[in-house]
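Reproducibility note. Readers wishing to regenerate the assembly model reported in the main text can use the exact inputs given here. Chain order matters: entities are listed in the order in which they were concatenated for prediction.
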Amino acid sequence: MPFRGLPGRARWRPLARIAVLLAIAGGALAAGDTGIGRRAPRLAVPGDAGGKCVEDTAFMRRNHMELLEHQRDRTVHEGIRTTPHSLANCVACHASKETGRVTGSKDAFCEGCHSYAGVKLDCFECHSDRPKPALATAVTPPERVRQ
Amino acid sequence: MSGVDPGRRQILAWGAAMAGVAIAPGITLFDLAHGRPPAERASNKVRWGMLVDANKCAADCDACVVACDTEHALPAAKTATAAQWIRKVELKDMRGGKTRSAPVMCQHCADPPCVDVCPTGASFKRADGIVLVDRHTCIGCRYCMMACPYGARSFVHEPVTHPLPDVPRGKGCVESCTLCVHRIDRDRIPACVEACAATGRKALLFGNLNDPQSEISQRIAALGATALRADLRLDPGVRYLGL
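Running the prediction on these inputs yields the following structure tokens for the assembly.
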């Protein structure tokens, strides 16, 4: 018998409390894959590009900032502009169909999630939040470097 | 490394020698010095430079300045605090009255004073000789602006409204001519050089200073171009003819 020193029904109370706590925790986990309780507001990811991202969605949710930081140093210092983990590449796919931007409102892809998570987003204080006009390069054929 | 195969080395050397052979004057089978594969990092085998021929530069022409402003979305109105990456400078010989006009921009020194003084490492020289500011680490102290003998750098005083995707800019950083690094990485020549050629003057020539066969190297060797403030021995990548 548990908790022998306690009188009568009181002996079972600690066990009952643990059981109740476990039930609550289990319910919360079952509410969604994210572990967010049912009463927490869910974020409808705006501006979803529809296609496949450069990495798994779950991986990108947790690690996109690492990829971007790594890529930015490779671009600025080493001049590598081809890899898919560039900010311009993110913007190209995720810009809103209506506004053509990834910031500016809570429906925009980057700003929507960042304002939901309460994380400051300062990329776009310098970077363009609109996709690159593909036409600009198509109209003027690039002149090859000659020496 | 112990695993080097001497035979393979020799074949690579022959390949490189063959690739450099000119099949006609000015046309090589494969341009050794230039073009790296886009996924490869910039290397010090190349040193980008520019030759400004003041004999061909017209005083009333500012095509290079306009092209630079357009390419980088710089403010067109030249207020006292507006960023300017390239400017036209007029020189006058006080004795004869002869005038010369030429553009001045970041001279992309081999030993850049701006890099020496930068407290955060934001000013840096890329492996291929292009001097840049990493805006992610620039704190806007403007030490580099004081150190630069060419007055080539600008501080961004006003908020930037619509930066271009290739040219991120923001208030509070120092910036200067990047030699159109975003174009060079994609095998294109700088916007000012392209614009100058479009006017027909062809006063600007861009190329690889490390390759003795390149047009820029050959012209410098033949005509003896000068460096601005050569007394400082900064070995600038931008050279001038006819000053």
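We highlight two features of this model. Helices of chain B lie at 6-20, 63-72, 113-117, 143-147, 181-184, 191-198, 215-223. The first helix of chain B runs from residue 6 to 20.
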